[in-house]
Design goal:
CATH superfamily of the largest domain: P-loop containing nucleotide triphosphate hydrolases
Helix content: 40-55%
Number of strands: 14
Structural class: alpha/beta
Strand order of the largest sheet: 2-1-3-4-5
Distance between the termini: 61 Å
CATH class of the largest domain: Alpha Beta
Strand content: 5-15%
Radius of gyration: 27 Å
Length: 481
């Protein structure tokens, strides 16, 4: 296997000499003469080793080092510098560089250093694969996907798993935050301990404290026996607090104390209980905004976000949609004892063209339904029933997408107008996607409320979100049914 080497050097004569020395040893060499060109290669080609001069005509080697580490924290970077700038090289090593070479560069020394870097890279990859294999044997869930963003999340997960730091998983509903939490637990030294999960939005506030901290006999009417809470049950293991943003301020204070002191009292008790529990929290809210609005404690936010990991939504990793879809097809065919079905190319195109406001959970439900409905050996678009994708029925033109204005509101297209032309695509890609997604979300909530006859509990169940989350979305989108 060949490992690409990125060589960043502005002096052409030196760059050519080093490239030839590396190519003579069978290495594939990518060349850049400044920081911008190096960053472009980093994003497009994913080299295994970076050799960069610290002094560049545009930008510098420190910028290349930062970009490399942001893209892949395990990427090996070797800096080259003149004798008079050794202190700069030492600074670069403190910032994450593997080693440095003093100019004039000895080609033999360079080759040895590159081979050492590649060997370290190979050992790290093998270690991660073995660790994942061991975790899977212990029951860890597989994380499906090849998108660079997902690979970066996976690397962050491995780094966090090796520590006992509190981890905050951030991402939209349906992105698989509990899956990542279980994988984190299975990869950690606590893998043999319990994994205890609790959804803070699914339990009434009056009961949540007793669920988390337990209660003593006689603490309240009906407390006939002592009951341990989730913090106790997760001793020497991991406690997963899902939807942490739904906690009341009073309960936030008690959780903060339990996190900081590793001790608490049961409800109705006076004895301090000491626990060794690692906490992983998850939220689909913007907790920084909640802190600014005085809805979430700032000290708890900082305590939870020691190691924040953001899981990308499915619409931002379109290349993973066919991979996930085929994985779910195989799983549900196996569960339903059906021969393995194939996905028609038109079905894959439709899956990839959909925005997936419900993320991986919605895709999973969509594929399960399609497998059940499919009467032949191939899943076609008609089996998918995507609510907001343009669907073509026999003898009927495809439904036009809803025009979206800058505020994410939908409106009826003018007669004869191209509805796509009326979508506001100004700003960044993320801003445009958020506007369209907001319009889709609003229509989905309105439809669920209409189908449920205005019953919010039933609508929340259909949407597979909590009752609190539905109330928030009704307020956010100004939906009145």
């Amino acid at each position: 296997m060949t490992f690409p080497v990125l060589l960043v050097e502005d002096k052409e004569s030196l760059r050519v000499m080093l490239r030839r020395a590396l190519e003579a040893q069978g290495h594939v060499v990518l060349e850049a003469h400044d920081e911008a060109e190096a960053v472009q290669h980093l994003r497009q080609s994913r080299p295994a080793v970076v050799l960069t001069d610290l002094k560049l005509p545009s930008g510098d080697g420190f910028g290349v080092l930062r970009a490399a580490k942001e893209l892949d924290p395990e990427l090996q970077v070797v800096v080259m510098t003149a004798y008079g700038s050794i202190q700069d090289a030492v600074t670069a090593m403190k910032d994450g560089a593997m080693d440095f070479l003093a100019k004039p560069v000895d080609p033999d020394h360079l080759i040895l250093m590159v081979e050492r870097a590649i060997a370290q890279r190979r050992m790290l990859s093998e270690y991660m694969l073995l660790k994942e294999e061991l975790a899977e044997r212990r029951g860890a869930p597989r994380i499906i996907g090849e998108d660079p963003q997902l690979r970066q999340v996976s690397q962050q997960l491995h780094r966090a798993a090796a520590t006992d730091a509190t981890v905050l998983l951030q991402g939209e509903s349906g992105t698989g935050k509990e899956l990542f939490a279980r994988a984190l637990h299975a990869l950690s030294p606590r893998a043999d301990g319990p994994f205890v999960a609790i959804n803070c939005a699914a339990i009434p506030e009056t009961l949540l404290e007793t669920e988390l901290f337990g209660y003593e006999k006689g603490a309240f009417t009906g407390a006939a026996t002592r009951k341990p809470g989730r913090f106790e049950m997760a001793h020497r293991g991991t406690l997963f607090l899902d939807e942490i943003g739904e906690l009341s301020l009073a309960l936030q204070a008690k959780i903060l104390r339990a996190l900081e002191e590793k001790r608490f009292e049961r409800v109705g008790g006076t004895t301090l209980l000491h626990v060794d529990t690692r906490v992983v929290a998850a939220t689909n809210r913007n907790l920084k905004a909640s802190v600014a609005a005085h809805q979430f404690r700032e000290d708890l936010y900082f305590r939870l976000s020691v190691f924040p990991i953001t899981i990308p939504p499915l619409r931002e990793r379109v290349g993973d949609i066919p991979i996930l879809a085929r994985h779910f097809v195989e799983r549900f065919c196996r569960d339903l004892s059906k021969p393995t079905l194939r996905l028609a190319s038109a079905a894959i195109d439709e899956l990839c063209g959909y925005l997936w406001p419900g993320n991986v959970r919605e895709l999973q439900n969509c594929i399960e339904r399609a497998v059940i409905l499919c009467e032949g050996d191939t899943i076609h678009p008609r089996h998918l029933h995507l609510s907001f994708a343009p669907m073509r029925a026999p003898g009927r033109a495809a439904e036009a997408p809803l025009p979206v204005d800058r505020n994410g509101r939908g409106s009826a297209p003018a007669a004869g107008a191209d509805p796509w032309a009326q979508i506001d695509l100004s700003g960044t890609l993320g801003e445009a996607v958020r506007r369209v997604t907001a319009a889709v979300e609003r229509r989905k909530v309105e439809q669920a409320m209409r189908d449920a006859g205005g019953n919010k509990e039933r609508a929340a169940e259909v949407l597979q979100i909590s009752y609190k989350a539905l109330l928030q979305k009704l307020r956010e989108h100004g939906v009145e049914i």
